[in-house]
Amino acid sequence: PCVFYKNICKATVNSVMRCVYICVPVNSRVSNKIQQLLNTLKRPKRPPLREFFVDDFEELLDVQQPDPNQPKPEGQQMSPLEGEPLGVVTNWPPSLPAALQRWGTTQPKSPCLTALDNAGKPVYTLTYGKLWTRSQKLAYTLLNKLSTRNEPLLMPGDRVALVFPNSDPVMFMVAFYGCLLAELVPVPIEVPLTRKDAGSQQIGFLLGSCGVTLALTTDACQKGLPKAQTGEVATFKGWPRLLWFVTDGKHVVKPPKDWHPPIREASNDIAYIEYKTSKEGSTMGIAVSHAAMLAHCHALTQACGYTEGETITNVLDFKRESGLWHGVLTSVMNRMHVISIPYSLMKVNPLSWIQKVHTYKARVAVVKSRDMHWSLLAQRDQRDISLSSLRMLIVADGANPWSISSCDAFLNVFQARGLRPEVICPCASSSEAMTVAIRRPPEMGVPPPGKAVLSMGGLSHSVIRVDTEEKLSVLTVQDVGQVMPAALVCVVRVEGTPYLCQTDEVGEICVSSGSTGVAYYGLPGMTKNIFETIPVTSSGVPVSDRPFTRTSLLGFVGPDSLVFIVGKMDGLMVVSGRRHNADDVVATALAVEPMKFVYRGRIAVFSVSVLHDERIVVVAEQRPDASEEDSFQWMSRVLQAIDSIHQVGVYCLALVPANTLPKAPLGGIHISETKQRFLEGALHPCNVLMCPHTCVTNLPKPRQKQPGKVGPASMIVGNLVAGKRIAQACGRDVAQLEDNDQARKFLYIQDVLQWRAQATPDHPLFLVLNAKGTVASTASCLQLHKRAERVAAALMGRLNTGDHVALVYPPGIDLIATFYGCLYAGCVPVTVRPPHPQNLATTLPTVKMIVEVSKSVCILTTQAIMKLLKSKEAAAAVDIKSWPTVLDTDDLPRKKSPQMYKPPTPEMLAYLDFSVSTTGILAGVKMSHAATSALCRSIKLQCELYPSRQIAICLDPYCGLGFALWCLCSVYSGHQSILVPPLELESNASLWLAAVSQYKVRVTFCSYSVMEMCTKGLGSQTEALRLRNVNLSCVRTCMVVAEERPRIALTQSFSKIFKDLGLSPRAVSTTFGCRVNVAICLQGTAGPDPTTVYVDMRALRHDRVRLVERGSPHSLPLMESGKILPGVKVIIANTETKGPLGDSHLGEIWVSSPHNATGYYTVYGEEALHADHFNTKLSFGDTQTVWARTGYLGFLRRTELTDASGERHDALYVVGSLDETLELRGMRYHPIDIETSVIRSHKSIAECAVFTWTNLLVVVVELEGSEQEALDLVALVTNVVLEEHYLIVGVVVVVDPGVIPINSRGEKQRMHLRDGFLADQLDPIYVAYNM
């Protein structure tokens, strides 16, 4: 079928398959035909037309190819490792509560737990007897004395939160065992200190998902919690409603003699839930059954050789992990005495745990490498300490890469104090699998400890390669001993199917035993992944019929069956296919000398995903006395160190003030919360260094322009093949339009004014409003004519015909009257915006420049401005002696000019229109009398303007369409213009809208800056305006006068806000004009509503238009810029070949119309470049018509709508100014697109402007917030521009609001900003140069 054939032709050969797949079901009867067609297409007769058919805007991100030389594992497949069997103990209790009952009744005086105060003094020793009786009391109270509506509050199996401070182990232990005796499930959590603790919301989620309704706490702790007005404990953010119960003695009751807690055998019911925070920051509850709790105690007892009555010091958090397993559970199993060292005491006295080992002759100590490191810093004060009693120093985080250095250093110092080297026992554990491996105490006859020196490069490819210690790029790890008794351990691949690793390969360690957690409470899906993994051999056979638990530990099994750990899944960062461990990167950063600029324990390393790869971020706390210079030196050293040791780039390195990183419960940094703050822009760094240029290696390749010029012939053929019509469109034909236009018989606008002054002398033409909304001045036809005559009389004696006259007036009738006075006298008027009295330094030079460039021989102005031009302040800005004659027109004598000047031909120059473009070029265009009349007639027809109409104008009257609407249109069409000077809106934002409502205006014009003032200033006041009877339902069309792509977001929010005041959603539209033709499009009163299309932003960069659905990725909404005016013809031309383009192709907008300007009077500074702007012809096709080049990119698209003429409507979409575009990486970017992304990236960015400087993209953002947020923006801006535009930002400049210069049309003056940046005049808050 022919439709299908067209489709095939449009497609490229290689996408034909896709095309067929979409178009035709496989079993259809056409498929043979298509097969033939495909066969012919496979042998193209001639090369394809590249210009039209290569869809190269699918910018493909570079996929990193694996290095062919990278190391690969070569060993055998590992075989699962079995721990020794659990020994049979004859009188082993059947459950933990049974053990408590045994010791509590047979050895009641035996010490169980000693608590210390912050001075290290023992405050209380809990005996086994006390623990037993107090736990029973609590159990009885919880089950029997708490009720709601006569129902018991708690039933066996219910979950209860335990909220106890780290300094109160006794109350915690009583509460924990009280719950076990009552068959309740304790859920120990941290004490929430404020309502906004790091991760507190997640704890709330955990409590909610566990169905917790009751929280147990101490009296002191309850008093310290934040309270609501009622005096009750406040509900924390994200927490369920909780009842708080204080477990101190006076609140619990003694059970009756006949009540006994049920002591059962350990079952598979849940005993307790331990919380764990994942890498992403979510908190899970790990459920541990009674049987697993008992088995774990049994295995630890055997592995550590615990004996009854031993003394053990515990520095760890007793609520979870090793602190709980050794110091609360296994200790009770073996009637051991625990000396609990609170964190607060360690902060005051890091040696306290060593002193307690000495004092209590403790046999075992449970610590972290941090505690060993701290005690080294403080050990000089202590001479008489002996550690000879220790048979086991359990290093709970022995799996950490930096624990080995702490162990070695500690041994070095304390060997002299009786510490034997073999008692140091690192262990590896995880919340899910509990203890995985532990180095056995020396008396068990185990092989000597091992040490492995591994190549970092190998590890990044998950391969084990032994190296030498002299090298920097090695990781030295110690073993964590043997597998736990009765456990089966294997190492599996990290991603995908859990295949067993080879012996020289790093993988995730998995454990199968009776002593691991059983589930994530309430999360069956995740539970299956983690707790029910089935490792398989390379041939896919399961290793065992028992399920395994993933430990999230990365490691391998070394010689002598010793387990080695090289990292954790949580700290794994996969960058460009290579694996790096966050802890290793921290260790490298810490090794960089000197350490005196940052705090040792306060470094966070994590990865964020930007542009489809992980990027490494390092955040550290800076010491308050470090200077910026010091910090930068340290930062650059860290970058170099990480680069050379890990062969990976750091994307962002940020230093924050001391003590501002979110803390984990017991010291350390809350990594996920830090990452969250980084991504939200809430980290508030004081120094930041970003290195996207070195890190981001997967950008698409820069675009190469097609080789060789594509000739005109192929273009035309291209159009035909593509089945496209050439993109051209025109407004209604002026000649065909018959209307009773009296003004048409006059060739000159000044003649129209004279005719109106005679025909309708009292007809009001103009009405100017002041800030209060009252009428400041008016002019009828006759009044305007009379005032113009006076001006002409004053000029005729002084000036020659054809002289240029600068009119420097504030917006008002004076400006209009002097304009016509000049025409009456045969002079050429040039309207100039007056200088701003408060800002002469920047505004006066522009006035001076226009006066000079326009070759004005005289300045007409008011007395006030005349004084200003010659004032002392003005002299500081310009040379005031070189002004031409200045006349003030405030008190001109009432005399008629001898006779009016009649121009010999309508092609004569009528006026000059000067405007500064956004790129900072001052361009004046010549408007002939013929063009002036044609412009007025075209606007009159489009807006249906008659003497009986009123229109409201809130625009500046100095150039472009604003000038035409103020000074020309009313005189031509006879309608009344209500003039609202935009400056007055600064003191009364509702002035314009109130006027529109008061005069029931149907047609109104404004600028984007006016629209912005209304949305920002009145957004919250629509109710007040309604009470003042402001009603906008009269408005049929409200047009924004613009020389840019329509700002959809602004027009939409304006429509939305003022919908409440009756503004029709169809009313708002935009116009389009430029220097060569000030009015090309304007919605007017008839014709279809402006349409909006969505285009692919990536295609635009390649000068293509690709229409997509709303909401699709990279989509950009473009709104039609009103209707093409009568008499105007528009065509889209290729910027390079100057040939016509097809429908929906992006090119330069060319325009032909009777009201085109006739040429530039001058282009200040760039005369040669613009010679062809006004008279260009197409290189082929219609080569006769003379066109003017607008300098704007856009496209035409034929729509399904019908025009007033009954034809199908052609819509013109303006994409942006060619002068403004940035050429980067071979593509064309429109600044506004990048700026829109940037503004969206953080709530405190008020405005943004971008420009290029020596190939670097510079982004200037205005910060509307506190200055501490300034550096947060650097990373967010860099991220969003990379993600959405595939560009690397070179410089981020953070400035105060109002620094980005904006012209009267509300357009950003990016070139002025660039000049200010290069001249160092922006006074920025912060400048970040991305490396």
UniProtKB/TrEMBL annotation:
<dbReference type="Pfam" id="PF23024">
    <property type="entry name" value="AMP-dom_DIP2-like"/>
</dbReference>
<comment type="similarity">
    <text>Belongs to the DIP2 family.</text>
</comment>
<keyword id="KW-0524">Neurogenesis</keyword>
<protein>
    <submittedName>
        <fullName>Disco interacting A</fullName>
    </submittedName>
</protein>
<dbReference type="InterPro" id="IPR000873">
    <property type="entry name" value="AMP-dep_synth/lig_dom"/>
</dbReference>
<dbReference type="InterPro" id="IPR042099">
    <property type="entry name" value="ANL_N_sf"/>
</dbReference>
<keyword id="KW-0966">Cell projection</keyword>
<dbReference type="InterPro" id="IPR037337">
    <property type="entry name" value="Dip2-like_dom"/>
</dbReference>
<dbReference type="GO" id="GO:0043005">
    <property type="term" value="C:neuron projection"/>
</dbReference>
<dbReference type="GO" id="GO:0009986">
    <property type="term" value="C:cell surface"/>
</dbReference>
<dbReference type="GO" id="GO:0007399">
    <property type="term" value="P:nervous system development"/>
</dbReference>
<feature type="domain" description="AMP-dependent synthetase/ligase">
    <location>
        <begin position="753"/>
        <end position="1161"/>
    </location>
</feature>
<feature type="domain" description="AMP-dependent synthetase/ligase">
    <location>
        <begin position="101"/>
        <end position="520"/>
    </location>
</feature>
<dbReference type="InterPro" id="IPR025110">
    <property type="entry name" value="AMP-bd_C"/>
</dbReference>
<feature type="domain" description="AMP-binding enzyme C-terminal">
    <location>
        <begin position="1220"/>
        <end position="1322"/>
    </location>
</feature>
<feature type="region of interest" description="Disordered">
    <location>
        <begin position="63"/>
        <end position="84"/>
    </location>
</feature>
<dbReference type="InterPro" id="IPR045851">
    <property type="entry name" value="AMP-bd_C_sf"/>
</dbReference>
<keyword id="KW-0597">Phosphoprotein</keyword>
<dbReference type="Pfam" id="PF00501">
    <property type="entry name" value="AMP-binding"/>
</dbReference>
